[in-house]
Design goal:
2 helices, alpha+beta, about 200 residues, elongated, 6 strands, 4-stranded antiparallel β-sheet
């Protein structure tokens, strides 16, 4: 009499294993295709926050400066002190014409003796990746470092300043306010624009 095993044999056949592997591979490919793009995008908010911090720092620095080269102490440029309709009396001076915006001959911001002293000195400032001054500096001309590492490696910043007295975002001849435009490009190549106004006070 033959011996029979009362327990039924269990397990997978070779065909079942191959089908299982194929289904698992298809599912893994699908899941990976959904997750991979998100991994790259998860860095974007971090870069955007850093760009915002950088732009905010530069705008605060610029806004803290004198409105104009011809302003000083309690006297503003374009102030008609005696209300005679002109700016030719002692202490009166006109604001810098827009075509003269930018640093004066003796002014620079690319070393530790940085000496920008008014808002329109920053017009045309370009620092960081892709520019002649390949690092971004603070108001003292120092490279921004954290634990010896460049905080904004791969970033770049460019600044333009124009007159926009009616504050509509378009350059005009009203010299009562200056529009400060700051473009920050992240290390990922995304350019983010920031702006602020500085009034003549």
């Amino acid at each position: 009499m033959p011996v029979t095993n009362s327990k039924a044999q269990t397990g997978f056949t070779l065909i079942e294993l191959i089908i299982g592997i194929v289904v698992f591979a298809v599912a893994l490919t699908f899941i990976t295709s959904l997750i991979s793009p998100q991994a790259g995008k998860s860095v974007d908010p971090i870069m955007q926050v850093r760009a915002t911090e950088l732009a905010n720092t530069i705008i605060r620095e610029i806004s803290a400066m004198s409105y104009d080269e011809n302003s000083g102490n309690s006297i503003r440029c374009n102030d008609d002190l005696n209300n005679d309709g002109d700016l030719d009396d002692v202490g009166e001076s006109s604001c810098t014409p827009i075509e003269s915006f930018g640093p004066d001959d003796s002014e620079y911001r690319n070393n530790t003796n940085s000496n920008f002293d008014d808002v329109d000195d920053y017009h045309g400032l370009q620092q960081g990746a892709g520019f002649a001054d390949a690092v971004i500096r603070n108001s003292l001309g120092e490279i921004l470092l954290v634990d010896g590492q460049n905080l904004y490696a791969g970033f770049s910043v460019s600044v333009s300043v124009t007159y926009d007295g009616d504050m509509d975002g378009v350059t005009d001849t009203d010299q009562s306010a200056k529009l400060i435009l700051v473009n920050v490009t992240t290390s990922g190549g995304e350019t983010i624009a920031f702006s602020a106004y500085r009034s003549n006070y």
